[in-house]
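Our collaborator T.R. sent over the components below with a one-line note: 'Predict the complex.' Nothing else. No constraints on interfaces, no templates requested, no preferences about which chain binds where. So this is a plain run: every listed entity goes in together, and whatever single assembly comes back becomes the starting point for the next discussion.
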Amino acid sequence: METWDTKPSFVRSDLPLIDCDIHNRVPSLGTLYPYLPDFWVEYCSTSGFGGPEMGDYPGGAPTSALPDTKPEDGPPGSDLELLREQTLDFWEADYGILNCAYWVQTVHNEYLAAALATAANDWQVEHWLDQEPRLRASLVVSSQNPLTAAQEIERMGDHPGFVQVLLPVRSLMPYGKRHYDPIFEAAARHNLVVGIHYGGAAGIPPSPSGWFSTYLEEYAGAGQIFQAQVISLVTEGTFDRFPDLRVALIEGGFTWLASVMWRIDKEWRGLRHITPWIKRLPSEYMREHLRFTLQPMDAPPDPKQFLRMIGQLDSDDMLMFSTDYPHWQFDSPEEALPMGLPESLMKKILAENAREFYQL
Amino acid sequence: MKSTREKVPVIDTDIHNNLPSPESLHPYLSERWRKHQAMIGGRGHAGSNYPRGMPHAARHDAWPPSGLSPGADLAFMQEQLLDAWDFEYGVLNPLMGGSGLNLEYVAAIARAINDWQVEEWTTPEPRLKASIVVPYEDGELAAEEIHRRGEDPNFVQALLIARTDEPLGRRKYWKMYEAATQYDLPIGIHFGGTGAGPITGAGAPSYYIEDHGGMPQAFQTQVISLVCEGVFERFPTLKFVLIEGGFAWFPPLMWRLDQSWKKLKEEVPDLKKLPSEYMKEHFWLSSQPVEEPPKREYFDLLLEQLNARERLMFATDYPHWDFDAPDRAFPTSLAPDVKRRIMADNARELYKL
Amino acid sequence: MAKHVVATVDEIPPGERKIVELEGRSLGVFNIDGEFYAVRNICPHQGAPLCEGRLTGLLESDVPGEYKYTRKGEILRCVWHGWEFDIKTGQSWWNPAQKRVRKYPVEVEDGATVASGLQKGPYTAETYPVSVDQQYVVIDMPE
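Returned assembly:
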């Protein structure tokens, strides 16, 4: 990345940094064959199946990949050497959290989906975690069937390299529904964060009003799906059932959060009797259980106003630094962090919040 | 709260009139559709049953002594709302008749509701202005109804419901926009509805609080779609009013769209400027339900980011339970000039009252 | 303290209420199982006539899906936005420390006391011809 020859001012030896959203990518279905049972290899290679749907990042869209992030062979994010150099080394990161957005949820054959998840996780251990001690990873799970997802969490949940279970923000049902309890139960028991990440293809429209025409709309519109998930998790009682559960909202923006806090708090005051298990203001659940990655930064143009927006969350603990590598979210490294942050808040956003949340 | 109690003119941009009974439309329906109404009635996207907190979603005190349902009794509405608060004008948004699966039936019902509104609401009570109910899932039928009522001074806007079958920027809706442009009629998008899929992009949630509190998701969808599909390049004078959608989500959406557009603008070459510029130019917002942040300064910043002085319009949502009272709606003290604009001037100008 | 006779006991049977005007203020007087309570008829939220709201019980839940319903008839739900208030304390459910409705002390006095009751202070009872056979609901209005 030749335009990135200058390091940003906040990359300093006295400032720890944790990148909470780095994408390692399964280069192709064939990559997983060594990790799949024979019958699934045969099925995959003779059925014309090409792997999960990957429409979340159209190949040529500028947002999908920073210039110069494509290795010689394979898609951006598929080569450890290049990723290490462009993320951990460049940002001098203490840790980088891998979010392998390999959406096995888009495969309706639940057992194939579960097998692909298992294979992807074994591949992550061998090709990423075993090779680079600064990396941590997220479990791929077939969350369309919470029972098989929970089995995979059971299988891998104690591996010290995995810190998170990754779910796509697009789901057939919102995650607060008890249908998903096995996933949250297993994640909480293994002390794993549940990360809800942009993307997925649940087979239903990505909005309450149908399908968008353009990728721009779908990408920018993802914020409202994150809102649905936040509201569901809080009002349907997920955090009452699993009081230790931590949920990260990844690549979904965050300046909308204050509006959701205010609105749902107001709703709850009048509608408490419908969900009586909610004993505190919904916004208090949000501050306690939710964290947000920084990119894409849906920030107002005026940096001072941006700081005031961050202040409206009434919490210094909720934001975690992320680059979203290899996706292109900012034009110069300096833009990866809001300008003018007070030193204490900058430290929290750069590393402390993530260190505590992911217990690194 | 003191300054908000000063007496200023009030225009209520969201009042719901209701039919006393389905038969109330008989005088305005042809024999064919009267029979259809009795035999089949309206059919919509079933499967979205969220039991509410209260019948008709109404204020407990909004049931008229006449025994009619809330919003169905003009005399009681006059007494409890228009006279009690001394409104200059009120805009009627009937929440019925605009959507359904049988589009011709929907068109007939929409026509009948509009005729009924003139006969039984805006003629006897000139402080009330009505919204044109249109069969909005068919752009051509909707345009027909706008042409029928576009020059009628009883009406001040065309009315859509926020959860539509498809995002409103899509071409199937454009004939309706063309017609609205012809009469310089704003288009109101009101809270509610059931589109062709679940009520969130993450599927069907469980509780009314998610249905009701999640409504901004549908509004965000519509704003994103209208802006990105180039509707405002095609119809440069078109105006939208976002009714009962809240408004604290609006500024963050401007920033998010701008941020994404800067990288992806080649996909939407019809757009000639930042998405936020279209949003600032083409959208007005009604106030109710006013978000209630824990600190006044948050609300003040929101009003500034929203350009509330020019674009926010007061609404009560009478007779519904989440009614905002004219003297107590805002959790801050509005400057006198801002207050005058929000409480009445913005609506007076937009609706040409 | 000015004492006001606002009703006969028979006028407000258990589970019922009466809305009264006292010193320019509107109050709701409630009979809960034979005990009388009075609260201001203005919701601290947006000024709705609170006391016209529905009476309900206290619905609680320790675990989502399990409902515990007690104190039926002791919770007042505001007529507009549904905020819940405990009639016995005036406290709101969601923020009992800060959001509360003004509560007034209520007593029941027999007719003899009311009729001869100058020792209890100045009664404002002009609308209530006092009979010694009756019992009366009396509200103490703070000065």
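Summary for T.R.: Residues 2-350 of chain B form a domain with the TIM Barrel fold (CATH 3.20.20.140).
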